[in-house]
Amino acid sequence: MTAPEDTGWRRLDPPLTTPWTGEVGPANALPEYPRPQLTRPRWLNLNGVWEYAGRPSSPDEPRPSGYAERILVPFPPESALSGIGRRDEVLWYRRLVEIPPDWRDQRILLHFGAVDQTRRSGSTTSSSRRTKAATRPSARTSPTSCARRGRRS
């Protein structure tokens, strides 16, 4: 699995640009708190480069064995800023996340800003969960044991 600092991401040539298009990159992909009216004292922004595998067909296909591409989250795969620039029907994202040491023995909430149809999430210490949604936010609370290990994927 790729560490967050090993990006491998490349911006594509967008069909339509703005004066700020060239300024967008992994270091500044929407770094602000996403919902200012609900600011938490401790939070971790997971925007940035993730490993990506897209499929043009059925969600019943098995999980990909490799993630050859890199996508810049939070941009959709169809956009040039994502680094993918195409539409896939089944999307697999993966990222190694380092949990801050002072979060140990705490419950951790993972918030997914947009999920279309089905989301599966898991970690190295817990089983996968499946959630059905329709392009709306969803969340998952991780068990305390995940926070003790210091890593999530």
Automatic annotation (TrEMBL):
It comes from the Bacteria. Residues 120-142 have a biased composition (Low complexity). InterPro entries: Galactose-bd-like_sf (IPR008979), GH2_Domain-Containing (IPR051913). Residues 1-39, 114-153 are annotated as: Disordered. This is Beta-galactosidase. It comes from Amycolatopsis pretoriensis.
